[in-house]
Model the fold of this input.
Amino acid sequence: MRTPEDRIVAYTPAGRAAWKALNTGWLVEGGFALEAKDHLTLDDPEAQILAKGGHIFFAERDGVPVGCCGLIAMNDGGYEVTKMTVLPDARGGGLALRLLQACEAAARAAGAHRLYLETSSTLGPALGLYARFGFVNLPPQPTPYARADVWMEKRLISQAKI
Done:
């Protein structure tokens, strides 16, 4: 039996439909409504994320997108991890961790001092992953999302030699 080839790749315009479908899927699966900010980000990721200094990564299995994650540049020099998902059939193999690692590497390369995220307390497996990856809880923050009731960050220590 052949082992599937998994890899993390950067967004290209050809991935726009997959970006929207993957994210719409997890929102519906989680019982969440698509909110105004979701529509902006999902309908035009180039303008809403990439043109503002952000990144989008896909997890591919045999060349087919099975997961994704965005990284939004923040005004404070950090990056917000957003819209992270892996299809149910592709979960459990470490793809979500690899997406987070790609986000952290991109943020560090840009000199970011932190990763930030907003999520829902109903997403238990995601919360566990974030905690294992070094995210810690923050007090409530302003958010455009009704579903967000957990705020987390991971401080990034400079890798520069002193």
User: Anything to note?
Assistant: The two ends are 50 Å apart (CA to CA). The CA atoms of residues 66 and 90 lie 7 Å apart. The first strand starts at residue 6 and ends at 10.
